[in-house]
Amino acid sequence: MILSMGGLSQISWFQFLPVESELSSLPDKSIKADQKDAATLLVLSSHLQLQKEGFLSTWTNSFVGPWDPSQGLHNPDEKIKLWLFIPGRHVSVVESAQSAVVKLRVVASGCWLAPGDSEEVAAALSQALRNRIERALLGLSYMRFGDVFSKYHPPQIEESFRRSHGYCNCVKA
C-alpha cells in the first residue's frame, strides 16, 4: 500500500555480479580470497556510485551450491551481488546508471509489482529503501546509533559559553 502511494507499485530490478574478466586480471589467479575481495570491491564501489547518483540500490550475499559446515564460517561459494531498482518497467539498465555498473554483468532482472511475489527481491528492495532513507536523514543532520537516528543540534554562539556540546533528539528507525 505505501509503495503504491509513493509511485513505486512497479519497480524494475536488476541483479549484478562482477564480470569474470575483471576478477581474472589479478596477478595470482590461484588465490581465491583475492578474487573474492576484488569482487566485493567492484560491487561495493558500484553500489556507492549508484547511491551518490540517487539510484535505489543495495548489495546482498548469496550462496552458490550447498553450504559445507566443514568450511567454517565462510562459504567459499558465497558471492556478493548488487541490486539496482528503477521505478517503472525497464528491460535494460537506464543509461544514467550504466557507468556505475560497467564492470558488472546482469545475472537476473524482472519487474516487482507491489506487494510482490519474491521474498529475495522484497528483502533487497527493503534494504535499498532503508539505504535511501538513511542517506536522506544523514543529509538532515541526523546521526545513526544502531537502529536509532538522532538529530544533532550544534550549539548557538551565545550558548557555547554555557554548554560545550550540542544536543540530540532521538528517532527510532
Automatic annotation (TrEMBL):
GO terms for cellular component: mediator complex. One of its GO terms (molecular function) is transcription coactivator activity. The keyword tRNA processing does not apply. The keyword Transcription applies. Its main location: nucleus. One of its GO terms (biological process) is positive regulation of transcription by RNA polymerase II. Keywords: Nucleus, Repressor, Transcription, Transcription regulation. It is found in: Nucleus. Residues 5-165 form the Mediator complex subunit Med13 N-terminal domain. InterPro entries: Mediator_complx_sub13, Mediator_Med13_N. Belongs to the Mediator complex subunit 13 family. This is Mediator of RNA polymerase II transcription subunit 13.
